[in-house]
Amino acid sequence: MSDCLIKAFSGCACPPGECVEKSTTPAPVTFVSWRTQAIACLTFGFLAAIVSAGWMEAQFKTRDLRNQEHVSWK
């Protein structure tokens, strides 16, 4: 049986009735709709904006605390 499968998928000729012939129709290709792509892009962008805003807020807070003594109130 394993020889038969190997022959069927490698393209070797098999005696009639020994192997199943290879199918001539290609596998179906599915495409993601533009609406699904748009929703995924917007969701990813929104999450990236939230994460980067949180990171920047922490950076600015640390920088403000570090530079607090350097500010002069003249």
Write a structural description:
It is a single chain. With 74 residues, this protein is mostly helical. It has helices at residues 2-10, 34-66. The mean pLDDT is 77.
Condensed summary:
It is built from 2 helices and no strands.
Number of β-strand runs: 0
Provide mean pLDDT, rounded: 77
Q: Helix and strand succession?
A: HH
Helical stretch tally: 2
Distance between the termini: 91 Å
Residue share in helices? 55-70%
Low confidence ranges: none
- SS class: mainly alpha
Radius of gyration: 31 Å
Strand share of the residues?
A: under 5%
Largest sheet: none
Structural shape:
rod-shaped
Keywords: Membrane, Transmembrane, Transmembrane helix
Transmembrane segments: 37-56
List keywords for this structure.
74 residues; mainly alpha; transmembrane helix; membrane; transmembrane
Compile the SSE list and pairings:
Layout: H1 2-10, H2 34-66
